[in-house]
Structure formats: structure tokens, C-alpha cells
Amino acid sequence: MKITVLYGGHSAEREISLKSGAGVAKALESRGHQVTLLDPADPVRALKGASEPSASAVAINPASAALEPARIVSAPAIRDTEVVFIALHGGEGENGTLQALLDLAGVAYTGSGVLSSALAMDKRMSKIVFAQGGIPTPPWAWIKPGAPPELSAAEVSNMGGYPLVIKPNDQGSTIGLSIIQEAIELRAAVDLARKYARDVLIERFIPGRELSVPVVSGKALPVIEIQPTHGIYDYECKYTRGLSSYLCPAPLDAAVTAYVQGLAVRACDSLGCEGAARVDFRLDPQNVAWCLEVNTIPGMTETSLVPMAAQAAGTGFAEFVEQLCARALEARRRKQDLTV
């Protein structure tokens, strides 16, 4: 196949996206595919942090491309490809904007479509959907743009009291996230979250175990348990070697495993996810799994969680990303058949 990998971009998750795209490009080239890398923000940084494969980087003008997804879609690397592998974490690459433009251009791409991407990226809307579908999610409150960083006693009580988790409403990788123990810490935590998003989500902190369940084309892969050294799976623990350990499959009873996997599939179905997604949970001491969020463009290095679970299920990384591309191409063909 002729494949273009979109990576890098302008979001706060740029550095992780560069690693994902580099890993995907190497894997696809190892399977004999013709791969082009395209970084809309800085195309000359072709594979920062990864060994150089033979994939080429398409040069577009970073100044003219900045914050203009339409220019990405019109680039020759997109027009001339068979399928786009989206490895842009966060921002317009994950919130449905790019997906809408690719749909209009008739280009096949990996991952979820417009609506599910937008819903998953908006944590507040995701939680509303989860609640409607009977999927446990931590009680929450929302601080609107421009609203003062304060909570009423009733709001705190409805969430179960302190500690509380404060986070940007539409960011990933725990960027801008804080856990507060008392009201006096709220303002600083909200100020930090507002550096990355206009809306701020506040939710009950769930004590217990950190679990993640990849879901691919409606099927749950093995559950992963994450054991961070910080007590919470923050940005440093996610991306610093040795600061977290991973158990895959997670050491859970068969019934609990099936329960968590079933919730993960339901969460993805409720949002309409396609391709590969990852559902994050906290499992409390009573074995209730609380759904935190769905990631529609999860990390895609060889050591990322979704490839880890695929490997545990018997599919190597290169074969796995190749399958994602093939499924995206087939999905586009089916849509075209429906319009004929």
C-alpha cells in the first residue's frame, strides 16, 4: 500500500506524536509498504527520536500550514496516497477536524470518524454519553470558560468530597492534570488546566488500580494493568522508562476481566469508535470499573499500550499497524459502494 503517516502537529502532545509516527512508519516499511511521513508543523523533523527508515518527509511550509488543517488535506502526500495513518495526538488531529476534511476529500484514514472523535476528545460530553449508557464514570463538575475557579459545598459533596482530579476538558496524556486534597488548592489546579484548554473538568478521584483496555474494530484486547511509581499514571510515568510497570494480561479474575472488557467495548460503541481505541479505567476496591475516557488515537510505538495488548493477543506490532491500514481502506471502499 501507499501510506502517508501524519504525525507531530501543533498540540501539547507533539513529542509523543512524533514517536508514534516514527514507530508506525518503520513498522509499515518493514512490511514492504511505501511510506511518506508528513508533519504539518515542522516537516524537517522527520523522525525525531527514532532511527531513520527510508521513508521520506514531505516539505510543506510550517508558517503557512500552522493551524490550517485544510492545507494538510490538499498536500500531495495526502492526495496521492491510498490511506492516511493518523498519529496526530490531541488538537485538530484527534478532535474530528482533520477527519471531517479527509471525509470531504474522500481519503481513507485510520481511526474513528468525525462525531466519535469529537465526542471522545470532549471529556465532559463523553461522560454524559457514558452516563446515558449505564457505564460507570466518576461523578464530575465542569468549570466553564471564564467562570471563577470555585466549587460549592454541594458540588464537592456530590462528587464524594476530596481528593478531586482537575484536568483540561480536551487534552490527553494527563497534560495539565492535578489531584487536589483541599479547596485551597483548587485555583492553582484550574489555572494549570486552563493553560491547555478553555473548559476544565473536575471529577472524583477513584482509589484503586489503573487499567487500560484496547478495543480494535469492536473487539477488546487483553486488559493492561499499569503500576506507576508516582501513584498516578501522570505524564512523567507514561513517558519515562522505568517509572511504570505494565502487566498484560492484567492479573484479574476471569469474571472481572470479562466485565472490564465488556465495559470497554460498550464505551467505544456508545461513542461510535472505529479502528483502534483505548479505554482507561480505575478499578476500585469493590471491583467497580470507572471509565475515565476513550482515546481514539492511542500511542503507537512498539512499547505503547495498544501494541502491547495486540502482542499479548498474538499480533506483532508491524502486522498490527498494517491491519489498521487495511481495515481503513476497506471501510472507505464500503462507504464509496454505498454512495454509488
What would you call the structural class? alpha/beta
Separate helix tally: 13
The sequence of SSEs as H and E is EHEEHHHEHEHHEHEEHEEEEHEHEEHH
CATH architecture of the largest domain: 3-Layer(aba) Sandwich
Average pLDDT number: 87
Task: Work out the number of β strands.
Answer: 15
Taking pLDDT < 50 over at least 5 consecutive residues as the criterion, the unreliable ranges are 43-67
CATH topology of the largest domain: Rossmann fold
Name of the level-1 CATH class of the largest domain? Alpha Beta
Largest sheet: 6 strands, antiparallel
State the shape.
globular
Strand content: 15-25%
Q: Supply the number of structural domains.
A: 3
N- to C-terminal distance: 24 Å
Instruction: Round the Cα radius of gyration to an integer and report it.
Output: 20 Å
- Helix coverage percent of residues? 25-40%
Report a brief summary of the structure.
By secondary structure, the protein is α/β, with parallel strands linked by helices.
Task: Give the secondary structure arrangement, pairings included.
Layout: E1 2-6, H1 14-30, E2 34-38, E3 56-57, H2 62-65, H3 69-73, H4 76-79, E4 83-86, H5 97-105, E5 108-109, H6 114-121, H7 123-132, E6 140-143, H8 153-158, E7 164-168, E8 178-180, H9 186-193, E9 200-204, E10 209-216, E11 219-220, E12 224-228, H10 235-239, E13 244-247, H11 254-271, E14 276-283, E15 289-295, H12 305-312, H13 317-339
Helix pairs in contact: 1-13
